[in-house]
Amino acid sequence: MEYRNLGRSGLKVSEIALGNWLTHGGYVAEEAAVRCVERAYDLGINFFDTANAYMRGAAEEVLGRALKQYRRSSYVLATKLFWPMDEGPNDRGLSRKHIMEQCHASLKRLGVDYIDLYQCHRYDPSTPVDETLRALDDLISQGKVLYAGISEWTALQIASAVSFAREHNIDQIVSSQPQYSMLYRTIESDVIPLCAREGIGQVVFSPLAQGVLSGKYRPGQAPPNDSRAATDAGTFMRRLLSDEVLEAVEKLRPIAADLHLSLPQLALAWVLRQPNVSAAIIGASRPEQIDDNVAASGVKLDAATLQAIDDAVGAVAQR
């Protein structure tokens, strides 16, 4: 496993991170989830990502129990807040009240004294950005949070946060968590250039495009019964399951084979080719999936390979 700095910070995170959006607290039995965390840790993954909203806190609880056996300083624990956690008007968003209450709730669910990376899961247009940033800065000053990040903010929203923090001498955000893959490249035009200038690292989710880049889905065939697309979770990926996209993905198979890589390894190496990416978040329901994904760490793709990838899927990529 290779490690990168999280943005401009001194924090080292594994190039491959383990997330638990659809794999802990409901979709996968806890025993299997714990085995995945243990395998990830054994393979050198030190970066674990979750959120309070995943299964309304259950995912945080599972991850906290799985990590309890390890020395706290040996791993980097990230969680997020924004989405509703109850029915009240203040049980959502990025107000000071919600940030403080949810930080304490996440600490309790995770069973830890501090959160390494606390992320704003989305931008909150109903709360002034200065209120959000000052609350995060206070949590950092209190030692309950070490670093702050954001997820799925636009370049303009990120620039506003950077400007305010700099002007008022408060802690800067160090990470951005966007969706990014061969098939979804929207951050390349403005988010990555801005973040590269400002020392904000990308911690990208869905680098395998909801599993489409794993090769498990074939054009003209129904999704496998045990796949994400065959469950309710498949609603997030319907646009990726057109024959046009799946036929393009098929063209990646010989490229990966020539490099003695699996399709997931090729997709992860493509994401990690980008120096502004600090880590790529994977999900896993079985330990062997982690074995395969981790092997992408350190793989370098040459210019000819990158061109071949663009020739294969560039036309169907969302930009």
The low-confidence parts are: none
- Beta-strand segment tally: 10
Mean pLDDT: 94
Beta content: 5-15%
SSE order, one letter for each helix or strand: EEEHEHEHEHEHEHEHHHEHH
CATH superfamily: NADP-dependent oxidoreductase domain
Main sheet: strand order:
3-4-5-6-7-8-9-10
How does the major sheet shape up?
8 strands, parallel, barrel
Provide the gyration radius in Å. 19 Å
| Overall geometry | globular
Oligomeric status of the shown chains?
single chain
Write the layout of secondary structure elements.
Elements: E1 3-5, E2 12-14, E3 16-19, H1 30-42, E4 47-49, H2 58-67, E5 76-81, H3 96-110, E6 115-120, H4 129-142, E7 145-151, H5 155-168, E8 175-177, H6 191-198, E9 201-204, H7 243-250, H8 252-258, H9 263-272, E10 277-282, H10 287-294, H11 303-313
Parallel strand pairs: 3-4, 3-10, 4-5, 5-6, 6-7, 7-8, 8-9, 9-10
Antiparallel strand pairs: 1-2
Helix pairs in contact: 1-2, 1-10, 3-4, 5-6
Textual characterization of the structure:
The chain has 319 residues and is an alpha/beta fold. The chain has a single domain (3-209, 274-298), classed as NADP-dependent oxidoreductase domain (TIM Barrel). It is 37% helix and 14% strand. It contains eleven helices and ten strands. The protein has helices spanning 30-42, 58-67, 96-110, 129-142, 155-168, 191-198, 243-250, 252-258, 263-272, 287-294, 303-313, and strands at residues 3-5, 12-14, 16-19, 47-49, 76-81, 115-120, 145-151, 175-177, 201-204, 277-282. The strands form two sheets. It has an eight-stranded parallel barrel, surrounded by five helices. Strand 4, helix 2 and strand 5 (76-81) form a beta-alpha-beta unit. The longest helix has 15 residues, at 96-110. The two termini are 30 Å apart.
